[in-house]
Amino acid sequence: MLRTGIVGLPNVGKSTLFNALTNAMNAQSANYPFCTIEPNVGVVNVPDERLEILAKLCKTDVIIPTAIEFVDIAGLVKGASKGEGLGNQFLHNIREVDAIIQVVRCFDDENTIHVSGKVDPIDDIETINAELALADMASVEKQTAKISKLAKSGDKEANLTLSVLNKMSGLLGAGTFINIKDHFEGDELPIAKGLNLMSTKPVIYVANVSENDLKSGNDYTKRVEDYAKSHGAETVIISAKIEEELIELSPEEAKEYLADLGVEDSGINKMIKSVYHLLNLRTFITAGEKEVHAWTITAGTKAPQAAGVIHTDFEKGFIRAEITPYEEFAKYGSYTACKEKGVTRLEGKDYIVQDGDLVHFRFAV
User: Which of 132-136, 162-166, 208-212 comes out lowest in average pLDDT?
Assistant: First the structure.
C-alpha cells in the first residue's frame, strides 16, 4: 500500500490534519513541541465518486475503494539531522514513506507558539528541507566511502554507482527536494532511486490557514505556492481545524458548511487526489453484483501487470482484457448494453490500462 508521511515543524497542525484524515481523534494535539513521538498510522480511502454510481448500477452494497496509508511523523526542528529533538528517529520514519506531505503554518495566532518565534512559511520549509538534505548527505558520504575502493579496482557497476553518488552529493548541497528524472537517466535511474533518499521523494506543501483564508488564501500561501511551483512540487490550501470539525457532520451538513465558506470540496479530498496525481497513479475498476473494487496502478501499466495487481495468477495466465470505459458504462447502465453499443472491447497484452477502465480479465491457470 502507498505510504505518505505528514511532516512539518512543531505546532503547524500536523496532528490536527491527521485526525481529520483518519476520522479518528487518535493523534494527540497539544501546544508544545514533540507532542507526537511515535508515528501515528492511519489508512484513508481515496475519494472516488464513480464507485457509488457503479454500485447502484451493478446492484451491490459492497464497495472497496483504493487506499493510502498516512503516517503522522513528529515535528522536526533545526538540527534534526544531527539528532536534535529526537531527530534520528523521525528521519528514519520519513525514509520509509513513498511521498511527503509537508504541513506549513500560514496563519497568525498569538495563542499557538511557533517554534522559531515568528510565522515565516518559506523559512519553515527551508529548515525542514535542509535537515532532510543534511541527513541524506551523511547517508551518501557513508555509501561513497564504501563503494570507492571497489570503484578503484575498475568495477564497472561500482564506478557507475560512485558517479551517481557524486552527482547526488552536489544536488543535495542546494538543500531542496530533487526530482530524480530531471538529473539522472538510463542506468543511473535505478541506482539513484535505490538510494531511497528523503530529498528525492515527491512532496506536497499543505498550507494550513485559518477559516477566513480558506477560500482565497493569503500572502503566506501565495509565497508557498510560488516556492512549490519553482521546485516542481504541488500546493494544497487547507484549514486543518475546519477539516477536524467536518468529522462531526453528516456528508450533507459538511457540504453545506463548505459551501458557506465558499469552497466546493474538502481540503483533505484535494490533498489525497494531489498525492495520487503527484505519484502518477491511476485507478481501474472491477465491478459486478458481488462488489465494486478500485485498484491502484501507475500510469503506463499494461494489462497483464494490472491483472497481477489483483492476483499473480491473473498475470501469469493472461489471455485478454475486456475493457469498458467508466463513462460508457455510466451512460448505458450495464455490460450487456455496452456490448450492444460496441463500446466494450477486447485488448491484448500491450494495452495500457486507463484511469476509470472497468476491466474483466480473461486468463488460464
Answer: 132-136
| Alpha-carbon torsion angle 168, 174, 180, 183, nearest 10 | -80
Indicate whether 62 pLDDT > 50. yes
CA 91 distance to own-chain centroid: 18
Distance CA 22, CA 27 (A): 9
pLDDT at residue number 111: 64
CA 234 → CA 179, 257, 276, 328, distances in Å?
13, 26, 12, 32
85's enclosing H/E stretch is: none
Phi, psi (degrees; rounded to nearest 5) at 299 = -55, 140
Sign of the dihedral defined by the CA atoms of residues 227, 182, 192, 277, in that order: positive
pTM over 0.85: no
**Residue-averaged pLDDT of the chain:** 85
Q: Give dist(CA 239, CA 215) in Å, integer.
A: 10
| pLDDT score of 85 | 42
CA quadruple 259, 260, 262, 263: dihedral, nearest 10: -40
Long-range contacts of 90-96 (CB under 8 A, 24+ apart): 90/7, 91/131, 91/132, 91/135, 91/198, 93/5, 93/39, 94/5, 94/7, 94/132, 94/198, 94/201, 95/196, 95/198, 96/3, 96/5, 96/71
Residues 346 and 361: beta-carbon distance below 8 Å: no
Q: How far is CA 263 from the centre of its chain?
A: 22
